[in-house]
Every structure is written in C-alpha cells, then in structure tokens.
Write a structure and sequence with these properties.
- The complex is a heterodimer of chains A (about 160) and B (about 220).
- Chain A is mainly α and about 160 residues long.
- The radius of gyration of chain A is 18 Å and the shape is elongated.
- Chain A is about 70% helix and about 5% strand.
- In chain A, helix 2 crosses helix 5.
- Chain A folds into 2 domains: about 60 residues, Arc Repressor Mutant, subunit A, CATH 1.10.10; about 55 residues.
- Chain B has about 220 residues and is mainly alpha-helical.
- Chain B has 10 helices and 2 strands.
- A two-stranded antiparallel sheet of chain B has the order 1-2.
- The longest helix of chain B has about 30 residues.
- Chain B starts with a helix and ends with a helix.
- The chains are: A mainly alpha (about 160), B mainly alpha (about 220).
- The interface between A and B is medium-sized, with 19 and 25 residues.
Chain lengths: ~160, ~220
C-alpha cells in the first residue's frame, strides 16, 4: 500500500515539474554535481533566476546541497537525489508518451481515454520497475511490475470501445 | 616455497579484477571527466577498496571451499565479488536477542546490516570526495581564467561555439554570450565565460587556451 502511495507521489510530482525545473534536474543528472553558477550556465540562465528553483527543488527533496567553501561560483555544491532522478525519469517517460500519442485526448471517448491513461500508468510502472532493477532493489521492482500487470489485466477486462 | 607465491599470485589476480571493476565504475560515473577523476584521492580510495574487497573475498571463499586455488577461480571471484557482497548479510543482533521484545525475529531483521548498504555508503562517500575534488579543480581553473584578457576570452568562447554549431546545430546560439557580456563587472563576465567554456566544451578547451595565452604573453612581454 505504501508503495502504491509512493508511486502515486512520484507520478504526481513528475506531472507537476515545470520546464526549467526539468532542465535543472537533467543538467545535474547528466553533468554531475555543480555550483550555482555552473548549474545556471548549464541551463543557459543566471544565478538570480535559478536560485528560487534550486531552493524549491531542495525543499521537495529532489536535489541536495553540500557546503562548499566560499567561491565566486557559489558556496554550495548541488546534486540530484535518488528521488529527483526517479521523478525526472518518470517525467521524461510521460513526456515521451505525450509526444508519441496518436490522437489528442479530446478526440477520444471516455472509455478510450480511461484505457489510455491506464496504459500510460502501466508503462510508467514498468519503467519504474526497470529503474528499481538497475538499482538492485528487486523487491520494489517486483511490486512495480505487479502493479503494472494488474493494470494490464484490468484493461483486458474492459476493452476500449 | 612456490606454494605461497602461487597463492599470492591468485590473490593478486582477484585484486586486479576488483581494481578493474572499480575503474569501470569511475568511467561509468564520470565519463569525460574520468582522467581528472583518477587524479583524486577519492578515486584511489574506491579503486583500492575494490581491489582489497575482491582479494579478501577470494581468500575467504578459497579457505571455505577446497580446490579453488586456480587462476580461473580467482578471476571468477574477482568478477563476481559485487554479487557476493550484494547478497551477504551481517546479522549483528543474532547473538543478542532483546528480552523485552515481542518479536525477536523482527528485531534481528531490523538490526541486520546489509553489506550492500555498507558498500553503497562507501561508494557514495568516495563519489562525494571525487566530486568535491573535481569542483575545486574547476574553481581553480576559472580563477586562472580571470587573469586573461576579457576580449580574448570572449572571442575564444564565440569561436568554440561557432565550431561546435557546425557539428551540432542543437547547441545554444551565441545570444547567451551576448547576455553574459551585458551583465555586471568584467570580473563576473570572465567567470561566467570560463564556466560557459568548461560546461559546454570541457576543461581541456579552457586549459589549452590559458596555456596558449601564457606562451603568448611569455613571448611578447
């Protein structure tokens, strides 16, 4: 039950992430930890513009900061947390799904839309399972896969009109 | 006399494989920064710990199971030791049940420390040490770049950008450099340009430029 709640939290946070937040998370994940000015340059921004974004992401537990002496580039070394990486992966999966969607949601009837959302969630759970496998957490991966399987079975029981 | 030498050679094989495992982890984590990462104490701590753990596990397994004193057993255990660590538990509380507890089995489970967690914590520590060292190196490089002429540094950044745009049209345009040049004091512009070069074209691009400028000022005092 806790795991389902956690998955829901991950999905909700992934949907709530803004474009600049996503770029900051991606920059930290792909290029490693960085000082304030380094992170700003990676996202083609300036320190005063990304400071509130970094603070907000830290409050949500998606990034962390370690003290790093006094330097012209910033005095904290920012890095992405495992939760931040997980949410970024989920956000990217949702983004890919949205980009590859065959028809807009408005064009679907209620059942088809419901099925589509379920399918997206099943694929996302599958992806989270894969991430957990890579992290060596097979127990959690099994839970994700079971949840995905449950959704797939539900979709088969109620075929789209 | 040849027996201990033979055993030492086998332990060395397991250690060497463990060392290569550690190297692979560093390459995976630091990719293009591997060369610089390998010059840090954290990297050597990780590499030596990997080698030591592989050797220790080989000695332990070989002492339990007879017939493992062959080079391919040493090689195999050197390769498989992370899997051994991942599945091993140290049950600290196994011999110390809590009399007040209603669920001693649960207590033991809670107190069990997974080797994997210890290793993950150690990896995290080494990674943080490497990241801190790499950041210090980058800061030093940026400080050296602030002694350069601003116009030359700007030209270098624009040239690098232009060259990379030809290969990768998705690179950012030079309007970001325009914004840097419109902001604040010269010192801050130099810092931002140096960071821009490091982040987009790597440390070598800036290090080489600083060397060139040093040679130029040496030849034209």
């Amino acid at each position: 039950m806790t795991d389902i709640l956690q998955t829901t939290v991950v999905l909700e946070q992934a949907r709530a992430i803004g474009p600049l937040e996503r770029r900051v998370l991606r920059a930290l994940r792909d290029k490693g930890p960085g000082l304030l000015l380094e992170v700003a340059v990676r996202v083609l921004s300036f320190p005063e513009q990304i400071t509130p974004v970094l603070r907000d992401l830290r409050e949500r537990g998606l990034i962390r900061a370690e003290r790093f002496g006094g330097s012209a580039l910033g005095d904290e070394l920012w890095s992405v947390t495992p939760l931040g990486a997980q949410i970024l992966d989920a956000a990217e999966a949702l983004e890919q799904r949205a980009a590859g969607a065959p028809a807009p949601a408005e064009a679907m009837d209620g059942t088809a839309l419901h099925q589509s959302v379920k399918q997206q969630e099943a694929e996302l759970l599958h992806k989270l399972g894969d991430i957990a496998v890579r992290a060596g957490d097979t127990a959690r991966a099994a839970e994700y896969y079971e949840q995905a399987l449950k959704l797939v079975r539900q979709m088969r029981e109620t075929p789209a009109s | 006399m040849s027996l201990p030498v033979h055993h030492i050679a086998l332990v060395a094989i397991a250690a060497a494989v463990g060392f290569v495992w550690g190297l692979r982890e560093i390459v995976d984590a630091f990719k293009f920064d591997t060369r610089h990462a390998l010059r840090t104490g954290g990297a050597w701590l990780l590499l030596l710990a990997n080698a030591f753990a592989a050797a220790l596990i080989y000695v332990f397994v070989a002492s339990l199971i007879p017939g493992l004193d062959t080079w391919h057993a040493a090689l195999l255990i050197g390769l498989a030791w992370p899997a051994v660590i991942r599945n091993a538990n140290i049950r600290l509380a196994a011999t110390m049940p809590d009399p007040a507890s209603l669920d001693p089995a649960g207590d033991r489970q809670a107190a069990a420390i997974r080797f994997e967690q210890i290793y993950a914590n150690f990896q995290d520590l080494a990674r943080r040490m490497i990241n801190a060292a790499l950041t210090r190196q980058r800061v030093q490089l940026v400080i050296r770049a602030t002694r350069l002429d601003l116009a030359r540094l700007e030209t270098h950044a624009r040239t690098l950008l232009l060259a990379s745009l030809l290969q990768n049209p998705d690179m950012p345009g030079d309007d970001y450099i325009d914004k840097i040049m419109q902001s604040g004091k010269d010192e801050n512009k130099k810092v931002a340009l140096a960071v821009f070069i490091i982040q987009n074209f790597g440390r070598d691009a800036l290090e080489e430029f600083i060397r060139q400028q040093g040679r130029r000022s040496g030849s034209n005092p």
